[in-house]
Amino acid sequence: MRLAEMESIAMTVCIAVFAGYIFFIIYDLAKKSNAGKFGTAVLFFALGLGLAAFLVKSVAVHFIEGGV
Description:
This protein is mostly helical and 68 residues long.
């Protein structure tokens, strides 16, 4: 396995772990602030939108550079 392949796999795994951790932080924030169902949904939408933008940017860059 080449170094570039290992870096690609490691980056994919790290981004997935990072996304999971961010969602855990949002859930914990909603739980500690007693946000309720609607407040939790708003928190996940608003704060999750930033994470989604980061992931979409990564995918867009990958396709623009000619990745498959």
